């Protein structure tokens, strides 16, 4: 309060120098948008489109099964051993729950942090604890150029050997990623303001749809209430819908329409929802905006492929790169951690059957591999690639039309 008192003590000081939000409040409150809303990563989640977009990506990516592969010099791959701290990073929480927290931090704050737990005897990683992004200070280490250092709640400085860091999009030379909420503060603030306006409009609105005019009469409060009560008694409720009204004494009924600026409220809200979906690169229909036609593909498989390539794949690659960095052997020995996104690429059952049929006939997969992918039990003797049928000899296998007559044999000439 002393800091604020010094600012407000002299009113004339406002005219001589500008005072920024950070100078007054620091990190006590998030900066306000021009709409008047203070937008933070937590408050942004109250906006339904932000919630739907962020959880859509986090839920999808965190559900992918991890796998370890070893890349050979010839470009081939073979299965590797997946580190246990990746498959089970926490003793109580499930893998997808830990990854979901990490991804939500990454999607909203632009950075996901986790404290690595190492075995004291040999320093092997045994698990991770996701950290609140707001409690972590990340910067370049001045004593070790090219390396980051981290501080958690004003504690001692830690290195990248202690903190698992997944970074989102960032500016050149930055030590950490950009917060999408901070970048989209005005758009999110406007959306939250529109929601509050709608709630207040219906909660505090005093606009009636019908006005009963009684000319040349000055009514007191009781007389006005009697007219309203009599009208509602015959016209309120489902059983009285469309019932004709009769007014005596020259009374008239006038309908009141919603002003055009209020009628455009829903259109404005829809536009803001589309704007937020663009920030997360999510197609509108995936977050409940059904008035816009999707141009992401004609079939479910094409749409899912586009969704993986343009929306999920950037976040998948960030996780894969971070996991690979801490995997035993790392990239130098060809070890890579991958997230199997095949489940996200699936189309309808008919599309899957058609694709696997082509894979089997093209000798890409065995029949049992196709059956397992379709959720069917394997068959005996179907673990080998299907050999293509040998081409038939010329003239063989040609079917003659039904009822066709054999050609007449030519008479043999008698020898002279």
For the biggest sheet, the summary is: 3 strands, antiparallel
Compute the separation of the termini in Å.
136 Å
Oligomer: single chain
Overall body shape: flat
Structural class: alpha+beta
Low-pLDDT runs: 1-18
Provide the spatial order of strands within the biggest beta sheet. 2-1-11
> Counting H and I runs of at least 4 residues, what is the number of helices?
15
Proportion of residues in β-strands: 5-15%
Integer average pLDDT: 80
The radius of gyration is 35 Å
Question: Could you tell me the number of beta strands?
Answer: 11
Helix content: 25-40%
Q: What is the H-and-E element order? A: HHHHHEEHHEEEEEEHHEHEHHHEHH
Word description of this protein:
It contains 15 helices and eleven strands. With 416 residues, the chain is α+β, with helices and mostly antiparallel strands. Among the domains are: 50 residues; 32 residues. A three-stranded antiparallel β-sheet has the order 2-1-11. A three-stranded antiparallel β-sheet has the order 4-3-8. A hairpin with a 7-residue loop joins strand 5 and strand 6. Helix 5 packs across helix 7 and helix 9 runs antiparallel to helix 12. The protein is flat. The N terminus is likely disordered.
The gist of it:
The chain is 38% helix and 13% strand. With 416 residues, the protein is of the alpha+beta class.
List the helices and strands and how they pair.
Elements: H1 2-8, H2 13-16, H3 21-25, H4 41-44, H5 48-62, E1 66-71, E2 77-79, H6 84-87, H7 95-109, E3 111-118, E4 125-131, E5 136-140, E6 148-152, E7 157-158, E8 163-167, H8 180-183, H9 185-204, E9 210-213, H10 221-235, E10 252-255, H11 260-263, H12 265-279, H13 300-326, E11 335-339, H14 349-361, H15 367-373
Antiparallel strand pairs: 1-2, 1-11, 3-4, 3-8, 5-6, 6-7, 9-10
Helix pairs in contact: 5-7, 9-12
